[in-house]
Amino acid sequence: MATTITDISKKGKTPTGTELNTKGWIQEAALRMLYNNLDPDVAERPEDLVVYGGTGKAARNWEAFDLIVKALKDLEEDETLLVQSGKPVGILPTHKDAPRVLISNSMLVPHWANWKNFRELEAKGLSMYGQMTAGSWIYIGSQGIVQGTYETFAEVARQHFNGTLKGTLNVTAGLGGMGGAQPLAITMNEGVCLAAEVEEWRIRKRLETRYLDKMTHSIEEGIEWALDAKAKGEAISIGVVCNAVDLLQALIDKNITPDTLTDQTSAHDALVGYFPEDMSVEEANVLRQQDPEQYVSRSLDTMAHHVRQMLELQKRGAITFDYGNNLRGQAHDLRGVENAFDFPGFVPAYIRPLFCEGKGPFRWVALSGDPEDIRVTDEVLLELFPENKSLARWIKMAQERIAFQGLPARICWLGQGEREIAGLAFNKLVREGKVKAPIVIGRDHLDTGSVASPNRETEAMKDGSDAIADWPVLNAMINTAGGASWVSLHHGGGVGIGYSIHAGMVIVADGTEEAEIRLKRVLHNDPAMGVLRHLDAGYDIAADTARKHRLNLKDRLNK
Amino acid sequence: MATTITDISKKGKTPTGTELNTKGWIQEAALRMLYNNLDPDVAERPEDLVVYGGTGKAARNWEAFDLIVKALKDLEEDETLLVQSGKPVGILPTHKDAPRVLISNSMLVPHWANWKNFRELEAKGLSMYGQMTAGSWIYIGSQGIVQGTYETFAEVARQHFNGTLKGTLNVTAGLGGMGGAQPLAITMNEGVCLAAEVEEWRIRKRLETRYLDKMTHSIEEGIEWALDAKAKGEAISIGVVCNAVDLLQALIDKNITPDTLTDQTSAHDALVGYFPEDMSVEEANVLRQQDPEQYVSRSLDTMAHHVRQMLELQKRGAITFDYGNNLRGQAHDLRGVENAFDFPGFVPAYIRPLFCEGKGPFRWVALSGDPEDIRVTDEVLLELFPENKSLARWIKMAQERIAFQGLPARICWLGQGEREIAGLAFNKLVREGKVKAPIVIGRDHLDTGSVASPNRETEAMKDGSDAIADWPVLNAMINTAGGASWVSLHHGGGVGIGYSIHAGMVIVADGTEEAEIRLKRVLHNDPAMGVLRHLDAGYDIAADTARKHRLNLKDRLNK
Ligand SMILES: NC(=O)c1ccc[n+]([C@@H]2O[C@H](COP(=O)([O-])OP(=O)(O)OC[C@H]3O[C@@H](n4cnc5c(N)ncnc54)[C@H](O)[C@@H]3O)[C@@H](O)[C@H]2O)c1
Ligand SMILES: NC(=O)c1ccc[n+]([C@@H]2O[C@H](COP(=O)([O-])OP(=O)(O)OC[C@H]3O[C@@H](n4cnc5c(N)ncnc54)[C@H](O)[C@@H]3O)[C@@H](O)[C@H]2O)c1
């Protein structure tokens, strides 16, 4: 079916308010979240059904979208809709405590699992790229990226600086689509951010949205501002229009050692994502056009230089880590920087310890459409976890700085135990009428027990189990068994076809007692899969978490 | 952990009878079926936990086996045990209508999904090859192979000979592990089987087990016996000690056209599985040792000859098909037989039409251990489906000819609608005490809606969706949602790591009303996934089945 602007305009707005368009709140939640994923304020290219992340879609085509909507409206409370890569393929009898929707996206038999075959099948209309939260109807806009970055720096703070970046100098580079969240994430953690970005327009964009506080063309000035703020304990972010290596060289020469050091240039793509040193942006753009090979070669030379500088600053005491852009890999594999991997990736260093506690990107959405409902949930969360300082900081800053996109939503990382507490509290709010309509609770697939992705989330597992994909499968099955509202298993999200298997879970707090029982189960089991996965891989923190929450099977059986 | 004979002897016998060793019949069923899979009469190498199919195992190692047993004994009726590639990793709270065990076996992130990586992970103790029914505890010995072969020939009979092979001459070759089931399957369908097998001891073995009726060294004599039986309408099987190509040449020369023609030599392995023409078995064995390259080359030459003969006989009117041994592929790819694929594979030709009706390898096991219980179920089945002649023929012959291995079991192919009827009837038998203990109902993963395997079950799908693996995932999820007793998702069964994704389902008929509700749901939904999968791919038979059983989503929504 051709995709035309008529189709999208036909779709209409996301339903909000307290009236049902379906036969129950769970079906209604799925309907609203599907619409929300394709809201023009949320989706990247709603006219093509593309939500985010390349071609991550919410439905296979407009015909499939229409059919899903019809099916959700017709679906009884003891039936389940099956969605095969964005196309509804059947409704089968189940029961009230079963999911209302089951989704499998982009799954291929492994030997055929590459982009070429996938694109062919997609072109034949047989599949769809579901990314993570696009095809599982729980994307909530860019709040997720800010929060993920915030959480990484919060963990840096916890591990090295007593829980706050106050009084620390945090140096990075790259203020693009994802990297642009760094300055905000760092100031939210009370630190000073000094970021090199070679393209001025990128910095201006971050200033406009208030993700960044100040800009300068002078490296000298930038460093001065930063040291001043650090000394005063002020949370400020500074963008310097320059190449990353020039900023780092100035720090090395002046004998200034940042407290933390990372990088989010798009080093994974040497031609399009990274700028070589000793040339202007204009010169680089010309060279890229005229002599791509030469460009790539100069890019890689600069990356090698860049990594050596980072290693030097690490030696001088900077907490240094790779932010998933393959900078280390490029320098190591293509420029022979043998010790490039002496600084760690951000997942093993900062995300995995959180995963070991069952922590991950918990999020919720107010189906009423009323931002006030989220404010109410924010308050409840602050009351529930008074000891969680980074959570409190996040919620307060998010209320001030994060604009809602589509249905009002909030994201924050919660761990084993915390998730069920939050879910039950939200259900109580709905029951008591303190929020206007049910709350949808979900998470990214990039979570503790729901993803196998050897180049990212499961990189360098302690026991070498990076490529084992049983865990996301068990996660999808236990959430189905527990009675999540909709459950999905996807292939290829985040890192592309062939490189990951991951599961999604969404559960609706509609205020009923049945929902309470399901929430207790599902929000216990879902992170528990992650604790068990990391326990099995030999992580001590996971062993502690398992002990605390009585998850260890051997302990139970040896009683 | 080392695998020693002490371990297996420690295991003990499969529990039988009416006393529980666990806290409920579902847990008990899982326990008994796990034991049964490793019964010395059932498993190929129980001491290594290998059940069948290369290294298809029931548990990762003896430590894991012990822990599963302990866990099943401790498991409450509202909890679920998680098994990751043969190792129990946790027990989580669910509810009575959820599966008691969820299993994921051998799943790998696709880019890493090959034997090399798998074997490395296996060696590290991190994974296990689950095959299909080995790691999902529903293997029942060689009855499955006989029945699958029987069903193929029954479908041949239905499509071409009015439902019976009576009065037909069916020619094949290869009477090895699987191929040895052919003579029995053909005579059970009332036809004459004339099979070439080069190794005399293989034929003797089949005579001993009564899978084969007669043997001769003379091709002349074999053909004479066969034509005589065909004329008289007698069901007889004849093994001729000769190379397949010599038998086919004789038929061509004598202008005798078989009614059906296939082959089950192990042509997929040119060195070990196939004998070249113009040499004795002894000469071949010497050549294989001394000059393997030469052996393979001569093998391939013979295969080319073999395929050309089959094409010639097909031209003369023989219903000719490939039986999944890659004979066509070898002749085509390595000896340039351009038209090798002019005769079809057995799945697209004979199995897929059954899949389109939701038919597949339904099986059940008497937990009492008493063969009489199976006899009772056999009778019930005959009463339930009096119009199904091939079913009746199978049951009667199976009662006479098939020896039970381990717990008494029966297999027969049932379709959409039939499976729920059978399941409910068995539950009634349990409730009314007409059988001594609950009945376990399951199936092979090689089923209509549960497997994606482009080189076998999903070869040459009408819409090109061979490699799409969403279907087995949805199958596992809907069976989990419906309340099957245990559910599994596996990778690599049948065709090896990288080449398939498939799901398993087992449900216990314990006589309760709750079980009745679950049986009705699960035995409806499980084959329905297959009907929907084939409907989506454009098969007319599936469209008819969907209409008959009200499975078509568009029909429902356009009401
Ligand atoms: N693994 C993860 O979860 C994760 C999370 C966030 C980001 N990343 C990675 O981070 C990288 C950035 O992502 P993005 O979406 O922000 O990319 P982007 O392409 O939108 O932005 C990259 C920015 O870097 C700037 N840049 C390039 N070379 C530079 C140099 N030498 N000096 C200074 N600035 C330079 C560019 O001008 C651009 O603004 C990507 O490689 C991405 O994969 C990974
Ligand atoms: N796709 C399926 O579901 C399916 C089902 C059954 C069998 N198969 C295939 O069928 C083949 C046979 O399986 P098996 O387990 O019986 O194998 P096997 O190796 O046990 O037996 C093969 C037999 O063929 C005989 N043989 C070899 N070359 C011969 C020749 N030129 N002439 C006469 N006899 C010859 C051998 O002596 C041996 O007895 C395999 O390739 C298997 O993969 C596939």
TrEMBL record, chains A, B:
Keyword terms, alphabetized: Cytoplasm, Histidine metabolism, Lyase, NAD
Pathway of action: Amino-acid degradation; L-histidine degradation into L-glutamate; N-formimidoyl-L-glutamate from L-histidine: step 2/3
One GO cellular component, as annotated: cytoplasm
GO biological process, one term: L-histidine catabolic process to glutamate and formate
Active site (record annotation): 412
Localization terms from the record: Cytoplasm
Domain Urocanase N-terminal: 13-138
Class in the EC hierarchy, top level: lyase
Binding residues for NAD(+): 53-54, 131, 177-179, 197, 202, 243-244, 264-268, 323, 494
Chain positions covered by the region annotation Disordered: 1-20
PROSITE patterns: UROCANASE
Gene Ontology terms, MF aspect: urocanate hydratase activity
EC number from the UniProt entry: 4.2.1.49
InterPro entries named in the record: Urocanase, Urocanase-like, Urocanase_C, Urocanase_central_sf, Urocanase_CS, Urocanase_N, Urocanase_Rossmann-like, Urocanase_sf
Residues covered by the Urocanase Rossmann-like domain: 141-350
Domain Urocanase C-terminal: from-to ranges: 353-547
Chief place of localization: cytoplasm
Cofactor(s) the protein requires to work: NAD(+)
The record's free-text note on cofactor binding: Binds 1 NAD(+) per subunit.
Catalysis: reaction(s): 4-imidazolone-5-propanoate = trans-urocanate + H2O
Role this protein plays: Catalyzes the conversion of urocanate to 4-imidazolone-5-propionate.
PANTHER family the UniProt entry points to: UROCANATE HYDRATASE
Family from the record: Belongs to the urocanase family.
NCBIfam families named among the record's database cross-references: hutU, PRK05414.1
Name of the molecule in the record: Urocanate hydratase
